[in-house]
Design goal:
Layout: H1 11-30, H2 34-41, H3 45-58, H4 81-92, H5 98-107, H6 124-133, H7 135-138
Helix pairs in contact: 1-3, 2-3
């Protein structure tokens, strides 16, 4: 499963999962069985077993979220597919196509960005006519 922020959960989803783990922690204290907790909370028994280990080692604090797994390493600057392709080539010595870069970014929750600059040949009048006459027929 892929997530919007590049591999991690949103803050809301992290909080929801933390509530589930804390509910499990209360049930550990009562002595409930792993299988019952997993069934009631709709999670795997393996997850409950991991949470129980964390609870034994750190109590309820051991069940709290530690935040996102990793922080983004790129700034909010605009990155075109060509720039990302160049970066991949330099960092990993891999040659890939623009379409391959797009698929890679899409798989990891990234979206395309607009070009760094507009084409010099752009004809605003022709573009406006196309949007008015042709685009409605395409839709």
């Amino acid at each position: 499963m892929r997530y919007a922020d590049g591999g991690g959960l949103t803050a809301e989803r992290r909080a929801a999962r933390e509530r589930i783990r804390l509910d499990a922690g209360q049930r550990f204290a009562r002595g409930d069985r792993t299988s019952d907790i997993a069934k009631d909370l709709r999670v795997s028994e393996r997850s409950v077993e991991q949470w129980r280990r964390n609870w034994r080692e750190g109590g309820m604090e051991g069940l709290k979220s530690r935040g996102p797994a990793n922080l983004p390493k790129l700034s909010d600057e605009r990155w075109t597919l060509e720039r990302v392709r160049t970066l991949i080539g330099r960092q990993f010595r891999i040659d890939c196509s623009i379409a391959g870069v797009w698929r890679l970014l899409h798989r990891h929750g990234w979206s395309w960005q607009s070009p760094a600059r507009r084409a010099l040949e752009r004809d605003e009048h022709a573009l406006a006519l196309w949007k008015k006459d042709v685009w409605p027929q395409v839709e």
